[in-house]
Amino acid sequence: MLRIRRLLLGALLALALLSALVAQAPWRGVLAGPPEDVVFVIPVGTLVAGMRGETVFSLPSRIDVVAGQSITVRNEDQAIHYFFDVPIPPGGSVRKTFEQSGDFGYREGLSCSIAGNANVTVVVQPR
Description:
Shape: elongated
Strand content: 25-35%
Low-confidence stretches: none
Number of strands: 8
Number of helices: 3
Largest sheet: 3 strands, mixed
CATH class of the largest domain: Mainly Beta
CATH architecture of the largest domain: Sandwich
Order of helices and strands: HHEHEEEEEEE
Radius of gyration: 24 Å
CATH superfamily of the largest domain: Cupredoxins -  blue copper proteins
Helix content: 25-40%
């Protein structure tokens, strides 16, 4: 009987220790998987509104992500738009994953209709 109690107590102690280690583990973020995408949607009428001098949609001048995170742009407009230098047809989308930390500046190749100032910086923090 005493032996069974010692075994149970040892098992409970081991389980408590294991739980504490898992809660503090540096791999906890890895087990959780990659962070969700940062998503932008180009709405219907963006190009036409831009031709009238109106702004319906504009990418922010700075986008913050963490390493391994992606930016997705969906085009619901009737016209082709560009995300960085990649064309996005009507109804299409483009996804770009940033694996390395750092600052990534994009100037050329951005459609004026989705980058109001045509300068976008993606700031990638380490995970």
